[in-house]
Design goal:
- Strands 4-5-6-7-8-9-10-11 form an 8-stranded antiparallel beta barrel. It has a 3-stranded antiparallel beta sheet with strand order 1-2-3, with helices on one face.
- The protein folds into 2 domains: about 60 residues, no CATH class; about 90 residues, no CATH class.
- The protein is about 20% helix and about 40% strand.
- By secondary structure, the protein is an alpha+beta fold.
- It is globular and about 30 Å long.
Length: about 150
């Protein structure tokens, strides 16, 4: 579900690349006069859309990627239910946990032990975190605390 708006009143072109649940990329480009530039922007948006969607697919294709639990870096992989709910994280040390609820910015998900976790999406949809509301533990998927820790208080 991608779109580009051209010739906005402020002279910019805007492209938004998204799936049903996340904005994968959003950018605007200042347009100069001339049809050639407009075609160039349209082609650039299509190429960028395809590239980002392929990258997103690779990261979520149930393969191990760099992750963090608090300040421990460890690889993990994630799978979702069909409607992007109930993310299940499997860590490379064989531990796993399912978080029940819809993965969406600010949503609260619950684990099987009764813990409540706040979902935060960052890095234009290619990485996200879960922060335990009670004890402050943080899980970062497809990134580490070195990349995104400042967003979640690490």
């Amino acid at each position: 579900m991608n779109y580009c708006n051209f010739m906005l009143p402020n002279g910019y072109a805007e492209c938004i690349i998204r799936n049903d649940y996340h904005i994968l990329a959003m950018y605007s480009i200042r347009l100069s006069s001339g049809l050639f530039r407009l075609r160039f922007v349209a082609i650039s948006c299509i190429i960028a859309s395809t590239s980002l969607l392929i990258q997103r697919g690779n990261a979520s294709a149930n393969e191990f990627v760099p992750c963090s639990f608090n300040r421990q870096i460890i690889t993990c992989k994630v799978s979702f239910s069909n409607d992007y709910t109930n993310p299940r994280i499997q860590w490379s040390d064989s531990k796993s946990q399912t978080y029940y609820g819809k993965a969406g910015n600010g949503n609260i998900l619950r684990d099987s032990l009764g813990g409540e976790w706040r979902y935060l999406d960052f890095a234009v949809g290619r990485s996200w975190s879960l922060t335990n509301i009670t004890n402050g533990n943080v899980i970062i998927w497809n990134g580490t605390y070195k990349d995104f820790g400042s967003y979640v208080g690490l």
